[in-house]
TrEMBL record:
Pfam families: DUF4175. InterPro entries: CHP02302_TM. It comes from mine drainage metagenome. This is TIGR02302 family protein. The chain crosses the membrane at residues 35-53, 59-78, 155-177. Keywords: Membrane, Transmembrane, Transmembrane helix.
């Protein structure tokens, strides 16, 4: 029998600590359930005393509340003692037993009642006891049940606790310590003396927290101007008085001993509370300086005629709004012809300055963009004044800038004349008769002169409207209607038809060719190059539109006529090559390539998918793609220079077998323009030995080009994708700046890191723009699927035969990850490359290759 009882006793002895902890939990549970009203009442009384309600209520109410609190406390104690049941060891053992399956403790305390003398039955009983002992050995203390929701359905205990916490944080509970200290020093009068409280609330726009004056023990106090001070004096009236010179109040003010005082800080001065326990401070006011705004660049005219004005604004607490006021500069105006008439009174042009959509407005840069081509002051001298305002109403202004108000330029003389008449009419209704006469004169005998019949008919309608308005007295509404008609006429004349676009292209080519022959300056040639690019883009766009509409009958009527199919990428490469030759001073080759370009434009078919011609915003993406490719070429050159520093023979070895760029065949010698361009570009990019300063200059040129592209309108502006694209371009610009600084410091390794960051940001920007275009035009041509097709027609492949995409990436253009996050996958690959490149167990050749991959990407 002793052997049978030994196992249960050992198992029960192992339950000593779980049993004790369970019993302690029972104590906590029963004390909480029995006496929770006691500490709730104590907390509530402490919160009332902490907030000082006893000083603000009548004495009768205070005594009534005190008696009620004491009565409730006594009743709660009596009820708690009556309900409380002292936890015993058996109760804890029973709770511990109930928490385990099968109640093993009860089983261990049982004895075999039947079959104790039977060996088989005894064996079964011992197995049962062993199993129960194993369960008991795994016993854990049982957590007490401290929930009081059934006993306190209104959560009064939490209300009392919250009141106590607020009293500790905002009340005067801590003043009891100070009063106790005074009592300890033997001053019974001080213990019963008055007390006070004070708060300083800074203006909301500062974002600064409130101050509790009782916690400020020093003598100096610095707060923002406009802060609101609230003081409360307790105790006998007159025992404490307030003395302040910070509010600047001179009118009727209350008594210095008023129990509650409020005023606003406007100047430096003194603030003091005189009396027992008072304090004095020297207050220094932080003045809110007015915001500032500066114009950071010249007034620019976009290709579409938009006004672009960069500016920088800052304020300590943030700029809330800004505006640009544009007024006519009459002193600089050439008062001739229609402008000689006294102008009508026009209100200044007021434009809201763009503010950052997110982030801080304390220090930021933006570009004011607005199309004012239709305004009467377009292309006239104006004065532009920028001003900004902060939350306090302070204003700051930039120096007034004098400039020509940008507007759309018209190159067609007829369109330009119509726009001038429109301007004169908007200048003053007194010019109505003169405008009517001139319009009739230029439309006399239109045969052979006005080729756009729709524009001519619309112009005649405008003349009749002007006649009718002049006869009856031209009203501002009728004048504005005629002006709008003249604007539409000028647009039709300027844009013209395909033949007009071809004629303008020929004229721009002739002007550029003449400038090359007579050795014009670089600035003049650059301007003529830009004009020719615009004319070429306009012609290709109209050519493509005519082909799509089935209006081009040349191929169908002359199937034997040899025509060349060309897309926007190929034409852009020819233009880049032409500009490169002129910058290098190779005028003969530039003239030959220009002649070749003229032949191409005379006999070409514009291919579908010409980037920048069919897709809205495609030209901007094309420019950024070119910038990405140029940055890649520059990074390759910097990497080659870095290799040459450690292996001088590497550069010469890599250079062998390449021909000089100047040895390429001239245009017209059996090589197509595209072939010459590819060879010339390869030769230019393949040169080695460029010093760090030359690379830095190229990097700066790329940064300037990126700034010009970012200042233009980008696809998806105003959308989430457009914002992400602009943020990526900002990161790319910063990385380019850092790369330039590293190159000038001859730190090629750091330069390569920053160039890789710039290329990554450019790729992200192009991806965001592509997504924005796809979202904005889900069914329009030029969305994702069609752009991939266009990319496949460029014919640009890498040495392994893979297509080079529009965004500078290499791939098939197919979704290979089947819906997975491509950016997450790319980052995982980069992390794996970094891990392998630092693995010393791998060969030196492999680690060098992995490091080169990291330098590129």
């Amino acid at each position: 029998m002793t052997e049978r009882n030994q196992i249960p006793q050992v198992a029960l002895d192992r339950l000593r600590w779980p049993l004790r902890l369970t019993q302690l939990g029972l104590w906590a549970e029963r004390l909480t359930q029995s006496f929770w009203p006691v500490w709730s009442i104590l907390f509530a009384v402490a919160a009332v005393l902490g907030f000082g309600l006893q000083d603000m209520l009548p004495v009768e109410i205070v005594w009534a509340g005190t008696l009620l609190a004491l009565g409730g406390l006594v009743w709660s104690l009596i009820d708690g003692v009556r309900r409380f049941e002292r936890p015993t060891r058996d109760a804890a053992l029973d709770r511990l037993d109930r928490a385990m399956p099968g109640r093993p403790i009860t089983s261990l305390r049982d004895t075999q009642a039947i079959g104790a003398g039977d060996a088989a039955s005894a064996s079964v009983w011992r197995a049962h006891v062993d199993r129960m002992a194993a369960r008991a050995a795994a016993a854990r203390p049982v957590e007490p049940d401290l929930r009081l929701a059934r006993r306190d359905p209104f959560a009064l205990r939490y209300v009392a606790l919250l009141g106590l916490i607020m009293a500790l944080g905002f009340g005067s509970v801590w003043r009891v310590v100070d009063l106790g200290g005074i009592v300890g020093n033997g001053s019974a009068l001080a213990a019963a003396g008055p007390t006070w409280e004070g708060w300083v609330q800074p203006p909301a726009y500062t974002g600064k927290p409130s101050l509790y004056l009782n916690d400020i023990k020093g003598d100096d106090l610095t707060i923002p101007v406009g802060s609101h001070i609230t003081l409360r004096l307790y105790g006998n009236v007159g025992a404490l008085t307030v003395d302040e010179t910070v509010s600047g109040r001179t009118g009727a003010i209350g008594s210095a001993s008023a129990p509650q005082q409020d005023f606003t800080v406007v100047q430096n001065g003194k603030l003091g509370i005189d009396g027992q326990g008072g304090h004095r401070w020297t207050v220094t006011v932080q003045k809110d300086l007015p915001p500032s705004v500066t114009i950071t660049g010249a007034v620019e005219r976009a290709a579409s005629g938009e006004l672009r004005l960069p500016f920088h604004a800052k304020d300590y607490y943030g700029v809330t709004r800004g505006k640009a006021v544009i007024t006519l500069d009459t002193a600089a105006l050439d008062r001739r012809y229609g402008l000689a008439t006294t102008p009508e009174n026009r209100s200044p042009i007021v434009l809201d300055l763009p503010m950052p959509l997110n982030g801080s407005r304390a220090d930021f840069s933006q570009v004011l963009t607005e199309d004012l081509s239709k305004n009467a002051w377009a292309n006239l001298p104006v004065k532009i004044a920028l001003s900004v305002e902060d939350a306090a109403g302070n204003t700051g202004a930039a120096p007034v800038v004098a400039a020509m108000l940008p507007g759309r330029r018209f190159f067609d003389p007829f369109a330009e004349a119509v726009i001038e008449m429109r301007r004169d009419l908007l200048w003053s209704t007194a010019n109505a008769t003169r405008t009517d006469e001139i319009l009739r004169a230029i439309t006399w005998r239109p045969e052979g002169f006005i080729r756009n019949e729709a524009a001519y008919l619309q112009l005649r309608v405008a003349i009749k409207q002007l006649d009718a308005g002049t006869a009856a007295g031209l009203t501002p509404a009728a004048r504005d209607q005629v002006a709008e008609t003249l604007w539409q006429v000028a647009l039709k004349i300027e844009d013209g038809t395909l033949s007009d676009a071809l004629e303008k292209l020929r004229q721009s080519q002739d002007r550029l060719s003449e400038a090359i022959r007579r050795g014009a300056s670089k600035d003049e040639i650059a301007g003529l190059m830009q004009d020719m690019k615009q004319a070429l883009q306009n012609y290709m766009a109209k050519k493509l539109a005519e082909n799509k509409n089935g209006q081009n009958k040349d191929v169908a009527q002359n199937p034997a006529q040899k025509q060349m199919t060309i897309n926007g990428d190929q034409m852009q490469q020819l233009m880049d090559r032409l500009q490169q030759l002129m910058e290098q001073g190779r005028t003969d080759e530039a003239q030959a390539l220009l002649d070749r370009l003229r032949q191409l434009t005379e006999n070409m078919q514009v291919a579908e998918g010409a980037n920048g011609m069919q897709v809205p915003g495609g030209q901007a993406m094309k420019g950024l793609s070119d910038t990405l490719r140029k940055q890649q070429s520059l990074s390759d050159q910097a990497f080659q220079n870095l290799q040459n520093q450690f292996n001088p023979g590497h550069g010469a070895q890599g250079q062998s077998g390449q021909s000089n760029p100047g040895d390429q065949g001239q245009p017209g010698q059996g090589q197509s323009g595209q072939g010459q361009l590819g060879q010339g570009q390869a030769g230019a990019d393949g040169q080695t030995g460029l010093d760090a300063q030359a690379l830095a200059d190229r990097q700066k040129a790329l940064r300037d080009e990126l700034n010009r592209q970012a200042a233009q309108s980008l696809p998806g502006d105003g959308t989430t994708g457009g914002k992400a694209a602009r943020d990526a371009l900002v990161r790319a610009g910063k990385a380019m700046d850092q790369a330039e600084q590293a190159l000038r410091g001859k730190d090629l390794s750091s330069a390569l890191d920053h160039q890789a960051e710039a290329m990554d940001a450019l790729r992200q920007g192009l991806h965001s723009m592509d997504q924005a275009m796809a979202q904005g035009q889900p069914n329009a041509p030029g969305t994702k699927g069609q752009m991939e097709g266009a990319t496949g027609q460029t014919g640009q492949i890498d040495p392994l035969g893979r297509q080079i995409g529009q965004t500078g990436s290499i791939g098939t253009g197919q979704a290979m990850l089947q819906g997975k996050d491509v950016y997450r996958r790319a980052r995982e690959i980069l992390d794996e490359i970094r891990r392998r490149s630092s693995d010393q167990t791998r060969s030196t050749e492999e680690r060098d290759y992995l490091r080169r991959l990291l330098q590129l990407f």
